[in-house]
Amino acid sequence: MFSRSIFRKDFKSALEEALDRRHMSLKELAELAGIPPATLYKITSGERDPRLSTVRAIVQALEPYDQDMIAIIAAKFLLDEIGAGTIEVNGRKIRIKGYTANTMEDCIVAAVKAEKEGAGGIICAPILATLIERIVDIPVVIVKPDTSTFQEAIDTLSKRIE
Asked: Which one of 37, 42, 63, 151 is CB 3.0 to 4.6 Å from 30, fit for a cystine?
């Protein structure tokens, strides 16, 4: 996460790494953050240290998280059951957005898209969590299947193989 990495390394390196990871140019960042491109060029060349207001604008542009939006990556039939929309948790409205995925590639694309669209976090299957955590800079939580789900699957499969 860019906002964390600026405290572990110099600002210029953290910014260049964040831009590389997002395949974003300085010009695109300048436009997104509402900062003159010349300011960013001076910062990345080492000519100038950024002001706090500039850092805030850059962080907001690179990490536009909507803490009230949760992404769920799953197969379409599961997302259809869950449904999209808004739920209330402890008096706070949380927007749920589903991202359909049927392959590992779909999951990777969905995770990147969810992060770019500002998700505050991602919910996914256990088998995907480790991979997705390496790709995105937002929290990832796994869905732990209920034992009754496995029992239903065992029952269904047993009937098919009789």
From this structure: 37
Phi and psi at residue 96, to the nearest 5° = -105, 130
CA distance 50 to 145: 47
Q: Are the C-beta atoms of residues 85 and 75 closer than 8 Å to each other? A: no
pLDDT at 6 over 70: no
DSSP for 130-162, written as a single string: HHHHHH-SS-EEE----HHHHHHHHHHHHHHT-
Q: Rounded CA gap, 121 and 139, in Å?
A: 5
Rounded to an integer, what distance in angstroms lies between the CA atom of residue 114 and that of residue 117?
A: 5
Separation in Å, CA 81 to CA 39, 76, 78, 104, 120: 48, 9, 5, 21, 22
Q: Does the reported pTM lie above 0.70?
A: no
**For residue 66, is pLDDT > 60?**
no
Distances (CA, A) of 71 to 65, 89, 149: 11, 15, 22
118 contacts: CB under 8 Å, gap ≥ 6: 64, 65, 66, 69
Which percentage of the chain shows pLDDT scores above 90?
A: 33
Which has the minimum average pLDDT: 95-99, 138-142, 147-151? 147-151
Q: Specify which residues 76 forms β-bridges with.
A: none
